[in-house]
Amino acid sequence: MKRSGVTQLALMLSPVVVTLLFATLILLAAGANPLEAFGNILAGAFGSAKKWGDIAVVMVPLALCAAGMLVTFAAGLWNIGVEGQIVAGALAATWVALGVQGPPWLILPLTLLAGAAGGAVLGVVIGALRTWGRVNEIFAGLGMNFVMVALTNYLIFGPWRPPDGATMSGTEPFPLAARMPMIGSSRASLVSIGLAVAALFIVYFLLRDTHWGLRLKAIGLNSAAAARMGINTHREMIVAFVVCGLMAGIAGSLQTTAVYFRLIPQVSGGYGYLSQLVVLLSGLRAVAVPLIVFFFGAVQVGSPRLELRMQLDSSLGGILQASMVLFFFLIKGWRQRLADRKERNA
Amino acid sequence: MLDPLVIATLQSVVASASPLIFAGIGETLTERVGIVNLSLDGTILLSAMAGFAAAYLGNSLLLGFFVAAVVGALVALVVALSSIVLKQDQVAIGFVLTLLCADLSSFIGLPYVRIPGPSVPYMPLGVLASIPVLGEVFFRQNLVVYASYVTVFLAWGWLSLTRPGLRLRSVGERPEAAFARGIAVNRLRYTYAAIGGALVGIAGASYSLSVKLGWSHRHTSGMGWIALAIVIFGGWSPFRVALGAYLFGALKSLGSILQPSYPNVPTQVFQAAPFALMVVALLVVGGGAAWVERYVPAKLQRGILALIGGSPPAALGKRFEQL
Asked: Is residue A112 a contact partner of residue A52, using CB atoms and an 8 Å limit?
């Protein structure tokens, strides 16, 4: 039975509707006006032309990490360490930006390369722990995330401390040669957006059209069977972590050279965990990622306004993002259940 | 006689391990019946907040612990229901709930940030408290800490000595065989997910009402992951889980004791150490155990593996199609 376009759209939007109902209940419970809250988020996200740039700034790391995680998820791996891989990229890029003198056309590509390498190195560590160390990748990744945050703080308050004293605001600002050019007066950079788009395309084709992509999916579906078929599962898993690390590392590099122009303590900003939600909501499909990161970006940019205007915590944004993924899964399961029942009765 | 300072330190180790024991034992029960509740880090935050708020508003500690237990059980039931009825991946649902509950705790908990509230009173246990060293360390605590000891013994006794405990384990290992022998597999899974979740909730309340008093943004962040790691480290066995919790508590206070003596070591090293140690501990029970199985003579293996070995319940995370 072919469904009409309207039904399809209604089904696709049902998690959004349920999420809004859920958020309405939470807001009512907190004694706040739901319409005012949603209105503030919308105004915060789209209130001025400049905001589009701000949304793009959030979309870039989310899309890059989501692209990377499509690879690890294809191999059936939960790369929670992507947050640490962002940080590793940021640290490597900062090392170049603060340490190497030269023209922008040399320094900027170097920061990107260094960032990618940084993320990849952490990918090797997580992959080695997972394969040879038999440590579940969720815990290996989480452990590394905490270690990377500590390393960042150590560097900011230690070796990379600004000459006039260390503060929570980070290292000294990068020289102009290590700053990505922005689009007009916005905060978005064309290089960042281009790299994020390229990453999604590359991953889409890698997974769809290459033998390597096929091998990863075989591991993801049944790693024991894949091993019997002669696939070196350990090597492929490590490679998957490395590829994800390359992209997360570039995201981290851009956080320093195109967003903050310095290394700050919270440089990864939780994007690693958030992009996990993006990938789950996409149903592991690269084509769905752009729309989802746009939505997540808008919520991220819009929700701080709740604190300014309504004395509410901006974590409502996180509630919207996470509950939408939860309801997506629950509705998917419910529909499947109804379909199964119908089939059984037929 | 031991130095009073050493006694005081050991007392704080035992006290600060109590929430980890509740959460670790709760998750052990849930995993032994075959369900992974990955949401612990978020559940502990949400129940710590809810428990504190309830105890504050109702001016009753008991109400606080009750509400926290209910919150923990409800979150665990969402995981169980999503898996059993809706056939969704437990790890995915658990991860999403981790983030969702953490954000819910920040949003709903905003009015309770850093306000003074009730706390579980100190209550030395009569004669037991005057036993040198052991009594001083273990029995000069509060009721919540005593409850953590009882929980370990009860969980061990239930799992190893009773008939319902045998059923619990059989459902986690061989659900098909258990079902064939007339055990309602999925009903047991709901039951122990809820009981385990309630213990995780109690862990949250024991932070906000006993160990780390009050509520603040991301008050217990990271502890849920530590508890999950302790379950693996503990090989899904209650006493080893408790041992893991005490080891973790000891290493943590060792860090805060050593910190002033090593001013050259940056404080960040001490902050990240628990999580790095978590990875090392899992490396020991994972890769380490595999190495022992391969290279250590068979005679020695049993003893070593009793300490660091242990495999997850065979049906952990797997759905059971009950018609």
From this structure: no
User: Identity (one letter) of the amino acid at A253?
Assistant: S
Residues on chain B touching A337 (C-beta within 8 angstroms): 85-87
Task: Choose, out of A72, A266, A319, A321, the residue to mutate when testing the contact with B (most B CBs < 10 Å).
Answer: A319
Share above pLDDT 70 across residues of chain B, in percent, rounded to a whole number = 99
Provide the 8-state DSSP code for A136.
-
Q: How far is A302 from chain B (nearest CA, A)?
A: 16
CB contact under 8 A, A150 and B87: no
Please say if the pLDDT value at position B151 is more than 90: yes
B154 Cα to chain A: minimum distance (Å): 28
Interface of B with A (CB under 8 A): 38, 78, 82, 85-88, 91-93, 95-97, 99-100, 102-104, 106-108, 110, 222, 225, 228-229, 232, 266, 268-269, 271-272, 275-276, 278-279, 282-283, 286-287, 289-290
Burial track B20-41 (b if 16+ CB lie within 10 A, e otherwise): bbbbbbbbbbbbbbbbbbbbbb
The mean pLDDT value for B12-28 works out to 96
Q: Nearest-CA residue of chain A relative to B108?
A: A30
Cα B45 to Cα A54, A129, A310: the distances in Å are 30, 28, 24
| pLDDT-flagged residues of chain A (< 70) | 1-3
Mean pLDDT of B59-76: 97
Predicted confidence (pLDDT) at residue B2 exceeds the cutoff of 80: no
Average pLDDT over residues B209-224: 92
Contact in structure between B289 and B311 (CB atoms under 8 Å): no
Q: Which of A77, A137, A146 to mutate to test the interface with B (most CBs of B within 10 A)?
A: A146
Q: With beta carbons under 8 A apart, name residues in chain A contacting B278.
A: 139, 142-143
Identify the weakest region by mean pLDDT among A51-55, A174-178, B242-246, B264-268. B264-268
Q: Mean of the pLDDT values across residues B304-318?
A: 83
C-alpha distance from residue B68 to each of A166, B106, B204 (Å)? 41, 16, 7
Question: What mean pLDDT, rounded, does chain A reach?
Answer: 93
Beta carbons of B290 and B305 less than 8 angstroms apart: no
More confident residue, B1 or A285: A285
CB A301 within 8 A of CB A269: no
- On chain B, the residues whose CB falls within 8 A of the CB of A273 are 99
- Contact between A238 and A123 under an 8 Å Cβ cutoff? The reply is yes
Question: Could you tell me what percent of chain B has a pLDDT over 90?
Answer: 71
d(CA B110, CA B107): 6
Q: The whole model's pTM is what?
A: 0.94
Per-domain boundaries in chain A:
71-299
